[in-house]
Specification:
alpha+beta, Nuclear Transport Factor 2, Chain: A, 3-stranded antiparallel beta sheet, two-stranded antiparallel sheet
């Protein structure tokens, strides 16, 4: 009987041998539509892929709209702590904490794609709902404008 677990597999690189601080770059992914909650499909019902920059932008938006510490499937670095933010006494303190949390979350990217976060703008809908726009600079001078609804 043939061996179900072949011994010769030279393509596996142990994680410990990878350079930990080396940026991996932008990887293609499947395009996801946050409004429908499903993958984007073409006319033949095939899932559409996104470029590396688009995939990074989708990751950033997902990071901003995920409650930090709420899901064990994510690391403790992923997401922002909206419970803490919206419990602060005034909007100035909330906006300051939003800037801090967003910057920390995006800079904690395991692939080291995020270089800086700037140009924050806040559009408040309610006491616990805000639309945040910011500019994120990445590798190779890539720059994306993010818009995410947080809370509510």
């Amino acid at each position: 009987m043939a061996n179900l677990f072949p011994q010769a597999n030279n393509n596996i690189v142990p994680l410990d041998n990878m350079k930990k601080n080396t940026p991996i770059g932008y990887k293609r992914s499947l395009k996801f539509d946050d409004e429908t909650g499903d993958f984007v499909r073409d006319g033949q019902n095939r899932i559409v892929s996104s470029s590396g920059i688009e995939a990074w932008k989708e990751w950033c938006i997902k990071c901003l709209t995920t409650e930090r510490y709420a899901f064990s499937s994510y690391s403790t670095d992923f997401g922002i702590n909206t419970r803490l933010i919206f419990s602060l006494p005034d909007r100035a303190a909330q906006e300051l904490m939003l800037k801090k949390e967003i910057t920390e979350a995006l800079m904690a990217d395991d692939y080291k794609r995020t270089q800086s976060v700037s140009n924050f703008e806040f559009n408040w809908f309610a006491a616990d709902a805000v639309e945040v726009t910011c500019t994120v600079k990445g590798l190779e001078n890539a720059e994306i404008d993010l818009r995410a609804k947080i809370g509510g």
